[in-house]
Specification:
It comes from Amborella trichopoda. By secondary structure, this protein is of the alpha+beta class. The chain has three domains: about 5-70, no CATH class; about 85-170, Glutamine synthetase, N-terminal domain (Ubiquitin-like (UB roll)); about 180-430, 2-Layer Sandwich (Creatine Kinase, Chain A, domain 2), CATH 3.30.590.10. Helix content is about 30%, strand content about 25%. The protein has 13 helices and 17 strands. The strands form four sheets. Strands 10, 11, 12, 13, 14, 15, 16 and 17 form an eight-stranded mixed β-sheet that branches. A five-stranded mixed β-sheet has the order 6-5-9-8-7, covered by helices on one side. Strands 1-4 form a two-stranded antiparallel sheet. A hairpin with a 5-residue loop joins strand 11 (about 250-255) and strand 12 (about 260-270). Helix 4 packs parallel to helix 12 and helix 6 (about 235-245) crosses helix 7.
Length: about 425
């Protein structure tokens, strides 16, 4: 792990006691402790597992943590049919995730088998104090990698008691678009590349960076290997496995260009599933970084200057694009996207203007462009798609903090449902030539 958070405690090695103040204990600090212990001639730890236990045990009761871990790992399946459902929803900022747990009498196969629930919307910025009740509608379920067994994670959207979707409920409108017959017939596929940055707690500076300073320039970090290049790999790997366990359609992961930054890919997913899977994957990442004592950032430009930002590139295709002759359909979709560039930019994430500067593998936020194999364009088409005459396009404009319900449904709406006049379409085609 990148670091271990330990409370104020006494760790005992042989007859020597070491006091550790509250706060993050880095791997380097622990290595120093072990080295000093060995130099003193005392016996070292017999196993890595015992060393790990010493790093979190309090001197007052060395068995407390073990007993707590035993309880957390309890398998309830042989004892009761009851399960724990973690209801997850999006808070008032549109990017913050909230959750709470409830007991369900028996395992369920679908969200339809779960009851609606409510929460205090005045505490999430979604309702006034005098009328604070907000209703959660279960929409999708995933296996819970933290509790295991038949326990589940439940992706919900939020409504007023009268049944009206909250303004922050972007899933509602997305579900309407994905329910359109023309959209259903086109079977829209999405592959979403979620970039994120890991920050050191308290100082909110990227993981692996010297506090108040900078690492070497970009170059060796992208897909890099080594203690001086890859910061936070354990978090990325833990998240990868947690997603697979949960049933999220994660397809890969890699270290990114800026040190301390990572990416994972979700898809191909069809329609509304893409948004559900990305939001659940973000929840898992929040929980894992919480356990590791590291701060997760989806800021599109976490560090100003000559550093890459963080995006959420969205790969998109329809049945017509994937069939023979699909390249012409892709070009028409690109023309439609050019006509609605401002609308898409306005919906593609907060702070995106700090990222889309025309530098660091981005296009200018003010100008729409497309190209084959060009990562400096708004829309990139792959070489293989051009060669085969069919395939997909990549929208490189969405920021890392974008709402996947908004981006996926807007792409479907623009590419499939939007019908510009012939005059406007002809003008757009000339501009893009």
């Amino acid at each position: 792990m990148a670091q271990i958070l330990a409370p104020s405690m006494q760790c005992q090695m042989g007859s020597a006691k070491i006091s550790i103040k509250a706060g993050p204990v880095t791997a380097k600090m622990w290595n120093s402790l072990v080295l000093n212990h060995r130099l003193s001639g005392r016996n070292s730890f017999k196993s890595a597992s015992k060393f790990r236990a010493f790093s979190v045990k309090a001197a007052s009761d060395n068995g407390v943590v073990n007993r707590l871990e035993d309880l957390l790992k309890l398998d309830l399946t042989p004892i009761t049919d009851k399960i724990i459902a973690e209801y997850i929803w999006i808070g008032g900022s549109g990017t913050d995730l909230r959750s709470k747990s409830r007991t369900i009498s028996r395992p369920v196969e679908s969200a339809l088998g779960l009851p609606k629930w409510n929460y205090d919307g005045s505490s999430t910025g979604q309702a006034p104090g005098e009328d604070s009740e907000v209703i959660l509608y279960p929409q999708a379920i995933f296996k819970d990698p933290f509790r295991g067994g038949n326990n589940i994670l439940v992706i919900c959207d939020a409504y007023t008691p009268a049944g009206e979707p909250l303004p922050t409920n972007k899933r509602y409108r997305a579900a309407q678009i994905f329910s359109e017959k023309k959209v259903i017939d086109e079977v829209p596929w999405y592959g979403i590349e979620q970039e994120y940055t890991l920050l050191q707690p308290n100082v909110k500076w990227p993981l692996g960076w010297p506090v108040g300073g900078y690492p070497g320039p970009q170059g060796p970090y992208y897909c890099g290997t080594g203690a001086d290049k890859a910061f936070g790999r354990d978090i990325s790997d833990a998240h990868y496995k947690a997603c697979l366990y949960a049933g999220i359609n994660i397809s890969g992961t890699n270290g990114e260009v800026m040190p301390g930054q990572w990416e994972y890919q979700v898809g191909p997913s069809v329609g509304i599933d893409a948004g559900d899977h990305v939001w659940c994957s973000r929840y898992l990442l929040e929980r894992i970084t919480e356990m590791a004592g590291v701060v997760l950032s989806l800021d599109p430009k976490p560090i100003e200057g000559d550093w890459n930002g963080a995006g959420c590139h969205t790969n998109f295709s329809t049945k017509s694009m994937r069939d023979e002759g699909g390249y012409a359909v892709i070009k028409k979709a690109i023309r439609n996207l050019s006509l609605r560039h401002k609308e898409h930019i306005g919906a593609y994430g907060e702070g995106n203007e700090r990222r889309l500067t025309g530098k660091h593998e981005t296009a200018s936020i003010d100008t729409f462009s497309w190209g084959v194999a060009n990562r400096g364009c708004s829309i990139r088409v792959g070489r293989e798609t051009e060669k085969q005459g069919k395939g997909y396009l990549e929208d490189r404009r969405p920021a890392s903090n974008m709402d996947p319900y908004v981006v996926t449904s807007l792409l479907a709406e623009t590419a499939i449902l939007f019908e510009p006049t012939l005059e406007v379409e002809s003008l757009a085609a000339k501009k893009l030539q």
